[in-house]
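Async update (no meeting this week)

Hi team, since we skipped the sync, here's where things stand on the single-chain job. The sequence we agreed to prioritize is pasted below, unchanged from the tracker. I ran it this morning and attached the output directly underneath so nobody has to dig for it. Comments welcome in thread, and please keep replies under the output.
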Amino acid sequence: MKEFEGNMGFRARLVYALFVAVASLPFFFWYALSDLLAFVLRVVVKYRRDVIYENLRGSFPEKGPEELRRLQKRFYRNFCDTLVESVKLAGISKRNFEKRIHCTNPEVFEALKAQNRSVMAMEGHFANWEWPGIHICCDYSFFNLVIFQPFNNKVFGRVLYELRYKLPTRRSGWLTPAKDTIRNMMRAPQPNRTVMLADQSPSRTAFVRVPFLNRDTAFWNGPARISKKLKLAVVFVKPRRLKRGYFEYSLELLCEDASQWTEEQLTAAYANALERAIRESPAEWLWSHKRWKF
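Output:
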């Protein structure tokens, strides 16, 4: 994380100030922009239209073409809402943010903290995945680590690094580049809590196969491997969009000690929890992923 420490340079400070100023525009502006962007992506650009439709069709063979097209249209709206809501995080106060999102069962984390257990909080690209991760890190009872992929551009990389700290602040924990995940988890104060998107596309050398949405599916095994190695409790984070700009999320304890499970069992438990969430609200998963590449 050393490349992000120290004072921001002039260009980074300027970009940061401009980004916060633009993000401070009211929600109605951002949702109007989202509606326009959804129309452009769906009708004009036809962004990954065939990929989205085929992913939906393979996952819900019981649904007819008209229903699949309706889900596809709703996907574009949720996708664009999530994009603008992620930008809006840079221009919202902590007080306003915390009025717009809450956890329905924080006692899951509280019980694990009482047992002095470190936690892997596993999210998916479902509903708005950015807001729950930030909200979790606003709770300082754990030392929090959020895993991210650094940008190649140093100015934008530094700006995004600072923006991710804007609501929870630095005392919440560390933002950790993906390549340093295990090292930073091992050196972090105990107990700690790591927030990770676990439905990333797997490589051909780091995956396990589990049943998911009517298909044998390759899942990245990184979260399961790390959880097992460090004997972590594993929690699934399930967000729910109440309406535009308002969310709740629930916590499902998958296991208290991952060292007692195999990587396949841990990944299957996560995949099952994610599938249940998707079946409740099918349009809210990131169907533009090329999930079934191999």
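Quick observations from my side:
The longest strand covers residues 233-243.
The beta strands are 101-103, 119-123, 143-148, 173-177, 192-197, 207-212, 215-220, 233-243, 246-255.
Reply here if anything looks off.
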